[in-house]
Structure formats: structure tokens, C-alpha cells
């Protein structure tokens, strides 16, 4: 079989590409995988359309090429169950609708975030395969904190370069409602420290690492830290820097949580079905262990 070349086309001026020329339900050649891996380091988000032959087994096999997967945290911390396919939307594995409480809890995803930044070893890549999508709304927005770092003034760069952010799932989820977290989550999910500035180990490009999960900046007075976090978030997600994705069944999206922020836009969960399956690849190293080049 002749090897097809991947072709890349920008989705937004600052990040993200549409990739064509590959069927992800089939095993990739080493050259195809290397091209995808390289594109992810460069462009931070990849969209593959029309992947209608995908299934969980193919998604798991593809995802594992990038490294160890993260267990899905909702069932892990509530029932101790280890599964690697997370379910995004309002449909249970048996096809029924999820509870109103679950719908409410997942509106926490409508705040800008980076997946699993509240874990000691956060997610490197999130991979979503769309099976059922609403007829209207239900988009997901993305923005690049790498592009935002490029726009940042030198003083702010120096101020945040060696700082640490405190990420706390209970803090961010209880913004939705007090019962958005269960007892298991309250017991096991403790605040974690993440470097506020990160650097891609392959390209050397830097970005800052903020999200709805960040409660405070270590060693900075609360109000000052909060104001700085809010400013950094607003800068990264200014309207012209946001890519809004309108989902179609068969869309397969990968993004780099080390530098990409995302949020759901909401939809009528009573009226429409939405079902996407997610896998997450863990970062090889906790971000605090990654050495950073000096501030520039
Ligand atoms: C996610 C997520 C938002 C959405 O899949 O990690 O935050 O649009 N999704 O459902
Ligand atoms: Mn998410």
C-alpha cells in the first residue's frame, strides 16, 4: 500500500491544524505517527474529520502510542474503578441519559481549563472522538497559552517565570455547586503544585499554565495572585485568540493540555444527545521536574 502523506491546514492563526490523509482506525506506520507527534508539538491541536470507523479499541491503541494513559477520574475517585475511556456528554454506556446531577456537574467544563491540571501528573494530551452531537450549540472553544506568552510583556514574564500555581479540583468544581463533587473526590483530590510557566521539551517554546482549577499563586498575597491569574486567563482567551469548534460526528480531536486551554459552550442536554469518548495521555514528567530555560 503506498504511504499517504498527511496534509495540514491551519484552523486558527495562532494554533491548531486540520489533518487529512489518514484513517486513525487502522494502525499507523512509524512515519505517520512521527508526523502526527511532530505536528502536535508544533501546532498544539489536531483535528481529524470523518473518522467514522473509530471505536474504543482503536482509540485506545492510537492513544497508547503517545504514552501511558490516565485513568478516568470520575469513576476512579467515586467507585475505585479503573477505566481509560472517559465519557463526555449526556449518554451512559447503556445508551440512557445521565442524571441531572451529572449534567450539572459537567457544566464545570464550561470554565476555561486544562485537563487534569489538578493531578500531580497532569494530562499531556486529551483525545476526543465525537459519536453523537447536538443539532445546535455544544461547541468547544480552545485557546493557546503559548501564543499568549508571546504577547506578554517582559515584566510579567519575569514576575511569573519561576512561580508555582496551586491547582485544586474541589475549589473549581464547587464553583458550580457544593454537590458537584462527591465524598471520594473530597477525600482523595488534594491541591497540587504546578509550575506557572512551562516549556515544550521538543520545541523549547514556553507558555503559562493557568486554568479554572488554579486557586492561588504560591507565595503571593491572595488578592494580588487572583488578579494576576484573572489577567493571564483573560489575555489567553481574548476573543480573537479563540478557536470555536462546531462538532460533527466522526470528528477526532487531540489537544496539548500543556499549553492549550479549552471549555465547553453548553447545549440543551434535555433536548439533544451528545456523546464523545475521551482518552488522556499522561505527561511523562510532573511539570515541576521539567527544567526551564532562564526568562527572556
Ligand atoms: C473535555 C471538555 C468540553 C465540552 O472533553 O475535556 O472539557 O465541550 N469538553 O464538552
Ligand atoms: Mn476538559
Could you walk me through the main structural features you see in this protein, from its secondary elements to its overall organization?
The protein is α+β, with helices and mostly antiparallel strands and 296 residues long. The protein has one domain: 4-Layer Sandwich (Double-stranded beta-helix). It has helices at 30-43, 56-64, 73-79, 100-106, 145-151, 154-160, 169-173, 183-188, 222-236, and strands spanning 7-10, 17-20, 45-48, 86-89, 123-132, 140-144, 164-167, 192-195, 197-199, 206-208, 214-217, 242-245, 252-256, 260-264, 275-282. The strands form four sheets. The protein has a seven-stranded mixed sheet, with helices on one face. A hairpin with a 6-residue loop joins strand 9 and strand 10 (206-208). The chain is globular and about 50 Å long. The mean pLDDT is 93. Bound molecules: N-oxalylglycine and manganese (II) ion (MN).
Amino acid at each position: 500500500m503506498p504511504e499517504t502523506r498527511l496534509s495540514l491546514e491551519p484552523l486558527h492563526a495562532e494554533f491548531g491544524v486540520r489533518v487529512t490523509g489518514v484513517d486513525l482506525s487502522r494502525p499507523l506506520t512509524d512515519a505517520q505517527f512521527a508526523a502526527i507527534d511532530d505536528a502536535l508539538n508544533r501546532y498544539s491541536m489536531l483535528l481529524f474529520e470523518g473518522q467514522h470507523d473509530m471505536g474504543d479499541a482503536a482509540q485506545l491503541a492510537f492513544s497508547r502510542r503517545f504514552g501511558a494513559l490516565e485513568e478516568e477520574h470520575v469513576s476512579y475517585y467515586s467507585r475505585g474503578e479503573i477505566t481509560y475511556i472517559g465519557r463526555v456528554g449526556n449518554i451512559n454506556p447503556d445508551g440512557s441519559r445521565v442524571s441531572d446531577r451529572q449534567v450539572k456537574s459537567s457544566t464545570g467544563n464550561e470554565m476555561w481549563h486544562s485537563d487534569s491540571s489538578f493531578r500531580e501528573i497532569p494530562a499531556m494530551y486529551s483525545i476526543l472522538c465525537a459519536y453523537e452531537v447536538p443539532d445546535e450549540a455544544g461547541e468547544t472553544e480552545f485557546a493557546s497559552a503559548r501564543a499568549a506568552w508571546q504577547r506578554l510583556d517582559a515584566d510579567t514574564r519575569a514576575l511569573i517565570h519561576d512561580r508555582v500555581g496551586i491547582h485544586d479540583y474541589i475549589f473549581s468544581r464547587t464553583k458550580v455547586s457544593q454537590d458537584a463533587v462527591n465524598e471520594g473526590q473530597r477525600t482523595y483530590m488534594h491541591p497540587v503544585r504546578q509550575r506557572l510557566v512551562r516549556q515544550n521539551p521538543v520545541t523549547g517554546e514556553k507558555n503559562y499554565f493557568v486554568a479554572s482549577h488554579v486557586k492561588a499563586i504560591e507565595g503571593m498575597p491572595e488578592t494580588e495572585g487572583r488578579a494576576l491569574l484573572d489577567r493571564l486567563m483573560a489575555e489567553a482567551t481574548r476573543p480573537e485568540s479563540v478557536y470555536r469548534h462546531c462538532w460533527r460526528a466522526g470528528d477526532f480531536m487531540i489537544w496539548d493540555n500543556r499549553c492549550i486551554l479549552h471549555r465547553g459552550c453548553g447545549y440543551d442536554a434535555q433536548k439533544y444527545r451528545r456523546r464523545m469518548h475521551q482518552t488522556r495521555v499522561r505527561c511523562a514528567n510532573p511539570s515541576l521536574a521539567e527544567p526551564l530555560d532562564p526568562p527572556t
